[in-house]
Amino acid sequence: MATWIRNGRLADTITGVFEEKDLIIEGKRIEKIIPRGQFSEGGESLDIIEADGMLVLPGLIDMHVHLREPGEEYKETIQTGCLAAVAGGFTAVACMPNTIPPNDCRSVTEFILEQAMRAGLARVYPIAAITMGRKGTVMAEFGDLKAAGAVGLSDDGSPVADSGIMRCALEYSRYYDLKVISHCEDLRLSEGGVMHEGEISTRIGLPGIPSAAEEVMVHRDICLSELTGCPVHIAHVSSAGSVELIRRAKDKGLPVTAETTPHYLTLDHSSVIGYDTSAKVNPPLRTREDVEAVRKGLAEGVIDVIVTDHAPHSSLEKELEFDKAASGMIGLQSALPLVLSLVDEGCLSLSRAVQKMTIAPARVLGVEGGHLREGSPADVTIVDTDARYVFSRDMILSKSRNTPFLGREMKGIAHLTMIGGRVVWQRKASHPGS
Ligand code: DOR
Ligand code: ZN
User: Which of 221, 228, 261, 276 fits a 20 to 30 Å CA distance from 55?
Assistant: First the structure.
C-alpha cells in the first residue's frame, strides 16, 4: 500500500528552499513529489500521514555517534542507540570505532552491521579505526574494512599523534575512498586537563586543557592535507582558533571539511562551575567567545556538518569527582531542538541548519540520502517545530542519561521518522509537545 505524506513544508536540501509539496511513497522508495493539492487518491487505498504545519525533511544523518557495542553494552547497545536516534529524527548514524574491541578489523565491522540489521531501526554506518587498537602505531587494513562495510576512518577518542602515520593514512584512505575523520588533540598539551584552561579552571581549581591542544593538531592536519592533496574531516570543532584555521584552509581551496556539535554551539565553560560531570566532554566546553566563533563558522559555511558526538556513559563513570569522571554526553534526542533554537535566535537559517544535518554529512561520508528525490529511499523526518516541552529523563531512550540539557525548555521535536518507507518512530499523543 502506498503512503501519502501531505500538507507539510518539504525541504529541498539542494536548493535550500521549502516547498508546499506532498510525498507519495511506494514500497521502500519515494514514488512521486507533487505540489500540494494536486494529488487525487483515485481508487487505491492509501496510508495518509498528515504533516499539516510541520516540516518534511530528508532523514537526518548523524555522522558521529558512539554506540558502545561491542564491549560496553551497559552504556548503550546498537539497538538502544538506534532507538534514541530515530526518536531524535535521525534515520542514519555513523558509529565511531572506540568500542571494546575497537572496530579495527573486518569481523567487528560485520558484527556492527549485523546488530544494526537485527535492531531494524536507523541505518548504521561503521567508521573503522585508522590504526590497530586505535594505538596510533600500525595502520589498520583499510581495504578489508571498506569491503566489510566501513564508510570512514577515525581513531576518535584519541588522536593519531604520529604525523608520519597520519600522512600515510590520508594517502591510503584516498585510494579506498574513505574519509579520515580526525580527533584533533595534542596529548602533551591536554595531559592531566579536565576542562577548558582559562579563568574558570583557575577559579574552581581544576586542571585545564588549552585551546592550543586542539588547534596545533587542526593545523597539522591541514598541513598534511596540503602536502598530500588528500581530504581530511576535522571532528568536533570547539575553539575560535580552529574555526579560523579551517576558514583559511578552505580559502586556499584545500579539501578540508569540519563538524561541530550542539553543545559547542550552546554551552560554555561556565557549565562546569557546579562540577556537573555531565558537562565534561572532550574537547572541553570553551569560552563564550569560542561559542560565538563556532556559531559564526557554522553560519558562514566554515563548519559543514552538525553532529551529536553522542557519547553515553553510565552513572558508574559519571557520578564521580569531576577529574575522575568520563568525558562525553548523549545528544541524539536533544540535537534537533537545540539546533532549532539556534535558528530561532537568528544564528543561521532553517534551510542551512537542515542542510548541515542531511545533505552535508551524506556528502562528507559519500553515503546515500540527505535529499528527497523521486526514486530515492524513503528516509523522511517530519518535524513539529512548534512543540514545546521540558527535556526530561523519562523521554530519554538511550541507556545512559548523561546530558546537561535535562530540565531545559525545548521547542521542536521529531514527530515521525521513516526509513525505507517504514515508520520507525511516531510521537505518541502522550509525548511531550503533543
Ligand atoms: O567527550 C568525548 N567522549 N570525547 C571523545 O572524543 C570520546 C567520547 C567517548 O567516546 O566517550
Ligand atoms: Zn566522538
Answer: 261
Whether residue 78 contacts residue 69, with contact meaning beta carbons closer than 8 Å, is answered with: yes
Closest alpha carbon to 117 in 420, 426, 425: 420
Confidence (pTM): 0.98
Distance CA(25)–CA(374), nearest Å, equals 9
> Distance between CA 255 and CA 182 in Å, rounded?
14
Residue 433 lies in a domain: no
Contact (CB, 8 A) for 113 and 149: yes
- The ligand that comes nearest to the alpha carbon of residue 184 is 1
pLDDT digits (tens, 9 = 90+) for 70-129: 999 999 999 999 999 999 999 999 999 999 999 999 999 999 999 999 999 999 999 999
| Range of the structural domain that residue 20 is part of | 2-56+375-426
The single-letter code of the amino acid at 53 is: G
Cβ atoms of residues 184 and 260 within 8 Å:
no
Tens digits of residue pLDDT in 30-66: 999 999 988 877 767 899 999 999 999 999 999 999 9
In the structure, ligand 2 is a single-atom ion and the residues with CB under 5 Å from it are 156, 309
Tell me if 146 CB under 6 Å of ligand 1. no
